[in-house]
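Renewal narrative, Specific Aim 1. Our central claim is that a sequence can be written position by position from structural information alone. The example that follows is taken directly from our test logs and has not been curated for this report. It begins with the structure tokens describing the chain, in the order in which they were read.
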């Protein structure tokens, strides 16, 4: 929002401080500006789930003069987008702030004529987005303008509010401040506890070893739902964006139960801290492989052993991408883990298979193409240049909409670069998460994101399949090679965080 015409972060600004000030939200922008920003972000693919977008629009709409990249990056420092990888947001900013004459700068790596809104089929775009994100997602100017249909949006006035209390149950009251007061919880913070790598590398004479740490899925919209007595709860995944993180969120059933108990509509709202403490994480792993890709991949399990169809699917997926890798499950202390998270376990296996034959190299390996074919048939080739830039080729069956596929590919590259290089949350010896703020997750900010050049295979035919998960694994492998196959991730966060 703007306060007296200057951008401010609404989510940490107490309402009482706004007394006598002029507050402008996205709804208060002139219609021409709203239309310009929503068109530009849809055209570039710079809004996916859209949860971050209205705030980013207000921030960028306050820019004046030529929108050089440094000014855009600077202005985005207070923001986080988990989905897009920033580049398409920057492109939209240039299109709006610099005007149409400079929009050609975003075109060269486009590979299709369907980038203009007049020729786009937004239903096909939404179908592509659904394939890439794994859940329904709209592609529409309304999403940019804050009307994506998020979980809490449709709740009727007068609903009770339920928040997580200090002892773990829900505190239910007539308003959010009242529920928070009842909960009696002090907000957690980040910590100086070092990152750990909870799974031991399997014994063996390996050419390459890897140990990963805990990472936060870090979807922007915290888990939320609401329900009327006897009704159906609102989905916590109203417009995608969680990359598997909310597929089995308990908030919907919690809302149903509380609504039935109280006999009136109830909103269930998790805070960021609740999401970090309770939300599922990608299982940490440790592995060793020989130069021909033979090896063992250990998967850390903090709850009951994985069993049943979800694990069977992982076993099949790993056999497809890394046939010489044997899987083991090992118990670890930590937050819940899930196989729902983006390409969980098979991406790690694909990375190990892709890098194994480079094991003899001493030092960084750059500028080599790394190809990953996902178990579903999506194909990606990633190459990291000496300047850190990322070159990508993506093939994912009939393209449906190259803007969306390109945007998801850039977003997957962003996630992969962060996963290998900078992301991690501290978990103490008892298994409690100690990094509880968005800032502590190590997600790459806009200014740290290198340019990504994407070539989408628009000539591909056949059933459309997910392409961005293959990008995720291919970029992770390319980044790890560039980091000289350092034995622990994140590679940038220092040896002090490593147990071995
Ligand atoms: Fe930015 Fe989803 S589009 S968080």
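The sequence written for that structure reads:
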């Amino acid at each position: 929002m703007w306060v007296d015409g200057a951008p401010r972060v609404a989510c940490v600004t107490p309402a009482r401080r706004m007394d006598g000030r002029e507050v402008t939200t996205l709804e208060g922008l002139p219609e021409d500006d709203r239309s310009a920003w929503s068109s530009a972000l849809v055209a570039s693919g710079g809004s996916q789930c859209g949860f971050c977008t209205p705030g980013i629009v207000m921030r960028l709409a306050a820019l004046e003069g030529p929108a050089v990249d440094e000014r855009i990056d600077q202005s985005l420092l207070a923001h986080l987008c988990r989905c897009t990888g920033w580049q398409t947001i920057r492109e939209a900013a240039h299109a709006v702030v610099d005007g149409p004459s400079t929009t050609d700068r975003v075109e060269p790596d486009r590979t299709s004529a369907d980038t203009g809104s007049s020729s786009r089929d937004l239903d096909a775009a939404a179908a592509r987005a659904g394939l890439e994100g794994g859940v329904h997602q709209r592609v529409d100017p309304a999403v940019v303008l804050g009307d994506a249909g998020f979980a809490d949006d449709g709740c009727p006035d007068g609903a009770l509010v339920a928040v997580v209390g200090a002892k773990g149950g829900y505190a239910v009251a007539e308003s959010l401040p009242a529920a928070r007061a009842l909960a009696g919880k002090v907000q957690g913070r980040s910590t100086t506890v070092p990152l750990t790598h909870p799974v031991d590398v399997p014994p063996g004479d390996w050419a390459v070893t890897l140990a990963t740490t805990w990472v936060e899925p870090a979807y922007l919209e915290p888990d939320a739902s609401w329900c009327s007595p006897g009704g159906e709860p609102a989905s916590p995944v109203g417009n995608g964006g969680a990359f598997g993180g909310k597929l089995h969120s308990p908030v919907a059933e919690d809302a149903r139960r509380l609504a039935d108990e109280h006999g009136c509509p109830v909103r269930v709202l998790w805070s960021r801290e609740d999401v970090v403490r309770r939300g599922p994480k990608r299982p940490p792993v440790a592995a060793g492989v020989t130069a021909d890709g033979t090896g063992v991949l250990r998967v850390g399990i903090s709850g009951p052993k994985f069993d049943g169809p979800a694990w069977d699917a992982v076993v099949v997926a790993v056999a497809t991408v890394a046939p010489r890798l044997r899987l083991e499950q090992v118990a670890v202390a930590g937050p819940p883990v899930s196989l729902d998270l983006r390409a969980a376990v098979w991406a790690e296996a694909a990375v190990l298979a892709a890098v194994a034959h480079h094991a003899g190299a001493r030092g960084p390996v750059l500028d080599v193409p790394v190809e990953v074919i996902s178990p579903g048939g999506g194909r990606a080739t990633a190459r990291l240049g000496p300047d850190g830039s990322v070159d990508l080729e993506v093939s994912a069956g009939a393209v449906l909409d190259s803007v969306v596929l390109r945007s998801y590919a850039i977003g997957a590259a962003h996630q992969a670069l962060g996963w290998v290089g900078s992301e991690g949350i501290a978990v103490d010896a008892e298994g409690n998460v100690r990094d509880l703020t968005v800032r502590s997750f190590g997600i790459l900010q806009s200014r740290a994101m290198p340019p990504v050049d994407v070539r989408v295979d628009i000539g591909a035919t056949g059933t459309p399949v997910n392409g961005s998960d293959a990008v995720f694994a291919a970029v992770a492998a390319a980044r790890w090679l560039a980091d000289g196959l350092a034995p622990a991730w994140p590679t940038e966060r220092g040896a002090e965080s490593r147990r071995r």
